[in-house]
Amino acid sequence: MVEEKIRYFVDLLFLLLILIVMLVSLRSLPLWAQTINLENTVSQADNLAVSLFPKRPLQGQAVIVSIRCRQTSPAPRQLILLGEKFKIVGVDEGEYKAVCAIPLNAPLGPQQLGIDLADAGVVEISLTIGAGNYGEEHLHLPAEMVNPTNVVHLRQIKNDRIRLRQIYGSSKAVIRFSQPFIWPLKSTIITPFGRRRFLNETPKSPHGGIDLRGKTGTPVPAAAGGKVAFSGKLYYSGNAVIIDHGLDIFSLYLHLNTLLVAEGDQVNQGQILGTLGSTGRVTGPHLHWGIKINGIFVDPLEFIKESRLLLQPAGEE
Known about the structure:
By secondary structure, this protein is an alpha+beta fold. The protein is built from 4 helices and 22 strands.
């Protein structure tokens, strides 16, 4: 009986010794080799933890990424998803936030989200993208608004694209808002996000925002604080205001009647940007409200829910 107990404790000590050796060996591995996938949390031998929201995003959705690092871990520089690079901002010591955008035409299924850790390489975690089924709509508009041929109009469209490209490339790795996003109007949705559009039966890009019902002259407030990146007239969008919220997050307020802010203005949530109208390519008065992240349109209603996570400390999601 005594010999059996001794043998039992010897075996237990042997197993414990093997476990200790394995743990020591794991800690000696380079950071990139220590990735442990636990659904949507990645732990790098207690040096790095990453959480995602939502855990299984759909096409046309934003993903909030929260990163916690120990002092021994290199600071993350940027995120990489589907070939696009996304900015990261430090929100506290060892804590970082970022937001990625899933394009409406993104490939479905498992994808790799890369976290660039400078000299330590890129850590990759799995991210599964689901289908966003948004439907389609058919609209009839004047031919010149669907397929312009007028030289003056074509020149304006070209200049608009150049200007917008500059605007969307100007955001900094900061968070310019202090409260979660809200609806810009208490109204009903005429056209939801993501619908594939056919204009005069010609297929066009999916609807990049939501259309909210309203009367001409209705005040339009900012959904969140930020800096006015654009206030002016665009061929397709009419009178428009675009706000830079930092981290390549922009909110768009299109087809306005009047403009009440200027480029460079700092605006607060709820501040009136202009009044609702029917300028640009429209069939009637309404507000088109959109969210664009790193040049990619995402569902603004889903982003209202997600924006609060950018303001919460990592680990409290």
